[in-house]
């Protein structure tokens, strides 16, 4: 199915989504049954079905007796093709790429990840995304019915509704990735911000709308729908990775903030006299709780490891240096979370990212500081949990953004395809929580 480009194409896409929605809800149906339910003209319905069959979105499911028909064969029924991909989520993390896909029945058909160098060019990142997507569903996933891609990138993303700071020359978007080790800033093409560059490349490669958001906020969305915070109405998510960021679910809705700036938790100051941060501040949480900061501190204390796995193993064997460091980092994290709890009042706090793999060695110090600093009336009402979706969280959040069906997104803009000026996809009204939960 081609992306909508005008009023008539949008109307056609609406008809396609209507038919797909009926097949999703009712299962296999004959053309006659579909006609009664959708109330489209016979000519329009048959034209839509021909296109859906041609793209592989819909397949014959058998024959059934529709009642008195006279002589002839029973009516053919049509069904969703379980091998046809409808939505893809991609998480462009700093040093890895994660993808996931759902089929037309909104069933998760697969996820895949692969690490890469932080300075990998965007063209090669998109090549890697295409290769990983090709592995999903055992390599049998058909993308002819693909409706959109939801992609997460590092750093602030401007207002998808075209607010005052949403243009390609805005300071917010050109910020891209505020880490200073050559990640995502500008691609050198007339100063075009790389988040937009990613959209352009994906749009050209797959030929469908591309919705973009902050990858950590998408991970928060994934955890709140499918993961550790499923069902929570007030959730605080913190991801401790090569960067530190988070997301907020407030009163059952994902909070985006003015111009998309919610969730920059890594740039809350924990030590005014601390190390300079790439954001321009000093002593931010990211300077003490990112993967690089923690590993550097561990090596400064005599530890010997180049990755988080080595730190996890050191903590697992109760190495005093590792436990002491994680206790200090946990206390800093807990102090930030306590302040946020007193301001926002979440019922669930979810800790994700690679550093969460250290488990109790980090989570227990966080919990102790929370108990000490959260207001007494709230102390026993906040649940601290470790994330459950792992590396797939951001990609799954991208899928949720495309489908725009979760109540968490009821007040969240279904942003346009900025790469091609394509209007936003029409929101649907199903609850995604039940899918893959």
Short description:
By secondary structure, this protein is α/β, with parallel strands linked by helices. It has 13 helices and 13 strands.
Walkthrough of the structure:
α4 (122-135) packs across α6 (194-206). This protein is elongated. It has helices spanning 7-26, 31-38, 42-54, 122-135, 171-175, 194-206, 215-225, 286-289, 291-300, 308-316, 320-344, 360-373, 393-403, and strands at 29-30, 58-64, 75-80, 85-92, 96-103, 108-115, 148-153, 210-214, 235-240, 244-250, 253-255, 348-352, 383-386. The protein is built from 13 helices and 13 strands. 45% of the residues are buried. The two termini are 28 Å apart. It is α/β, with parallel strands linked by helices and 437 residues long. Mean pLDDT is 81; it is low at 1-5, 160-193 and 418-437. Strands 6-5-4-7-8 form a 5-stranded mixed β-sheet, sandwiched between helices. Strands 11-10-9-12-13 form a 5-stranded mixed β-sheet, with helices on both faces. A 3-stranded antiparallel β-sheet has the order 1-3-2. The protein is 36% helix and 17% strand.
Write the layout of secondary structure elements.
Layout (H helix, E strand, L loop, with lengths): L6 H20 L2 E2 H8 L3 H13 L3 E7 L10 E6 L4 E8 L3 E8 L4 E8 L6 H14 L12 E6 L17 H5 L18 H13 L3 E5 H11 L9 E6 L3 E7 L2 E3 L30 H4 L1 H10 L7 H9 L3 H25 L3 E5 L7 H14 L9 E4 L6 H11 L34
Parallel strand pairs: 4-7, 7-8, 9-12, 12-13
Antiparallel strand pairs: 1-3, 2-3, 4-5, 5-6, 9-10, 10-11
Helix pairs in contact: 1-3, 4-6, 7-13, 11-12
């Amino acid at each position: 199915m081609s992306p909508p480009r005008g009023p008539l194409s949008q109307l056609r896409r609406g008809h396609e989504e209507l038919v797909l929605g009926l097949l999703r809800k009712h299962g296999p149906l004959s053309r006659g049954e579909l006609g009664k339910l959708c109330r489209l003209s016979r000519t329009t319905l048959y034209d839509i079905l021909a296109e859906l069959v041609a793209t592989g979105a819909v397949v014959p499911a058998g024959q059934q007796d529709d009642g008195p028909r006279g002589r002839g064969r029973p009516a053919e029924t049509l069904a969703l093709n379980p091998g046809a991909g409808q939505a893809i989520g991609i998480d462009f993390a700093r040093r890895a790429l994660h993808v996931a896909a759902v089929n037309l029945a909104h069933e998760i058909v697969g996820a895949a990840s692969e690490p890469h160098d932080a300075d990998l060019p965007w063209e090669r990142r998109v090549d890697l995304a295409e290769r990983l997507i090709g592995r999903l569903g055992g390599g049998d996933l058909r993308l002819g019915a693909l409706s959109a891609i939801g992609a997460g990138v590092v750093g602030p993303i401007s207002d998808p509704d075209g607010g005052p700071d949403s243009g390609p020359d805005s300071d917010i978007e050109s910020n891209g990735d505020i880490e200073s080790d050559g990640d995502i800033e500008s691609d050198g093409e007339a100063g075009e911000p790389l988040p937009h560059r990613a959209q352009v490349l994906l749009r050209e490669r797959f030929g469908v709308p591309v919705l973009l958001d902050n990858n950590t906020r998408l991970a928060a969305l994934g955890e709140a729908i499918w993961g550790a915070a499923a069902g929570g109405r007030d959730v605080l998510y913190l991801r401790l990775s090569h960067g530190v960021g988070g997301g907020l679910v407030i009163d059952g809705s994902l909070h985006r903030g003015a111009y998309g700036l919610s969730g920059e938790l890594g740039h809350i100051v924990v030590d005014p006299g601390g190390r300079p941060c790439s954001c321009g501040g000093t002593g931010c949480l990211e300077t003490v709780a990112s993967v690089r900061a923690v590993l550097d501190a561990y090596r400064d204390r005599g530890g010997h490891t180049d990755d988080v796995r080595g730190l996890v193993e050191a903590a697992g064997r109760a190495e005093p240096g590792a436990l002491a460091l994680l206790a200090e980092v946990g206390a800093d994290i807990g102090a930030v979370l306590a302040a946020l709890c007193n301001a926002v009042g979440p019922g669930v706090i979810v800790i994700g990212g690679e550093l969460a793999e250290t488990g109790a060695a980090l989570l227990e110090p966080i919990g102790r500081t929370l108990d000490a600093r959260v207001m007494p009336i709230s102390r026993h009402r906040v649940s601290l949990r470790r994330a459950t979706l792992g590396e797939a969280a951001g990609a799954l959040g991208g899928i949720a953004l495309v489908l725009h069906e979760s109540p968490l997104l009821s007040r969240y803009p279904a942003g346009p395809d900025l790469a091609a000026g394509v209007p936003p996809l029409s929101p649907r009204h199903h609850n995604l929580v039940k899918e893959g939960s």
